[in-house]
Amino acid sequence: MSIRRDPRSPFWQYNFQIRGHRFFGSTKCTTRREAEKVEVAERERAKKLVAQTAAAKTSLRLDDVFGRYWTEVGQHLEDADDNEHRLELLLKRFGPDKLITDIDDNDVIGLVAWRRGHLGKQGKPLSPFTVNATTMQLRKLFTRCKLWGVRFEHEPLWKRHWLAVPDERVREVSEDEADRLEAAISENYRPFIEFARASGWRLSECLLKWSEIDWGARQITKLGKGDRRVTTTITPTMREILWPLRGHHPVYVFTRAVKGERRPVTVSGAKEAWRRLCKRAGITGLRFHDLRHDLATKLLRETGNLKLVQKALNHRNIKTTTRYAHVLDSEVAEGLERVAKLRKNRGTAWKIA
């Protein structure tokens, strides 16, 4: 047995090598017999870890997993800054030497509780959505590791850890608000916001690259929420917005003028520009994401076709789209009234004794 007594500690220590990998640490036991049992268990665990590492051809330390994930995926996402922040939070919570294969349900429970104890920028508790975003980031790491060949014996049951998120409110832009936004919008962000209103895409999805636009096929295709491919047909209105922007930047479609040069619009920059725009326009309680809700409600009211709205918003499940069904309530009421009048005219209305 490769155990010994450390004179500086009351506990026995284990120290052994497997295929050139050294493993050492405290058994947390004060008797040799108990320490030997722990050492046997650690050897078995070490053998599995070495086999896992060889199969995946990658280190399973969180610090190394994060680095590889960032290189392959994270830095290329539209919300790269938010992605990096969430990775830093996970590293702070678990530590750089934690093995991703050791993370189980109890670890995720602790992560959720830890994040719920954090405060946002305004000193308020984080929303369930924000807490879930951190958990989702960890799940994405697990998914990526599986592509590398990593196998998980105790993968967390993710559905157990999502916090309930209140139904998202549906907010329309009134005609008066639209007029005030139009009058206050800056030319730097006008094309970007106009495209968001015309497409109904999420903020990060609107950060287009020229390579994502196919003028011949009249389509725009890119990765959206959950790395799902989103596609839209270039309508005449979209073409009017996009066509004049050619030549402004070799890679990015939407840019802003800064000291004589064109710089790409970013997620954080767009959020701040929207906040300032609403303040200048004297509008409160209107988020950038509400432009998406506005298009959806108006589109459903115009067409009465829920499946069409689902496709336009790239919703995977139509249940998500049904949040906009309230806009048809008046049409339903009108239909019921027409039926009632029809029956009355035919003399088939119920008689009240």
How would you characterize this protein structure?
The structure is a single chain. This protein has 353 residues and is mainly alpha-helical. The protein has three domains: 3-56, no CATH class; 62-161; 175-321, hpI Integrase, Chain A. Helix content is 48%, strand content 10%. It has 13 helices and eight strands. It has helices at residues 32-56, 62-72, 80-94, 105-116, 128-147, 175-184, 190-199, 236-242, 267-281, 290-303, 306-313, 318-321, 329-345, and strands at residues 3-5, 12-18, 21-26, 213-214, 219-223, 229-233, 255-258, 261-264. The strands form three sheets. A three-stranded antiparallel sheet has the order 1-2-3, with helices on one face. The chain has a three-stranded antiparallel sheet with strand order 4-5-6, with no helix packed on it. A two-stranded antiparallel sheet has the order 7-8. The termini are far apart.
Query: Any guess at the CATH architecture of the largest domain?
Result: Orthogonal Bundle
- Element-by-element helix/strand order: EEEHHHHHHHEEEHEEHHHHH
The helix fraction, in percent, is: 40-55%
Query: Would you tell me which CATH topology of the largest domain applies?
Result: hpI Integrase, Chain A
Question: How are the strands ordered across the major sheet?
Answer: 1-2-3
How many runs of DSSP E, i.e. beta strands? Answer: 8
Categorize the overall geometry: elongated
How many individual domains? 3
CATH superfamily of the largest domain: Intergrase catalytic core
Mean pLDDT: 87
Residue stretches low in confidence (pLDDT < 50, at least 5 long) are: none
Radius of gyration from the CA trace? Answer: 28 Å
Number of H- or I-type helical stretches = 13
The span between the termini is 97 Å
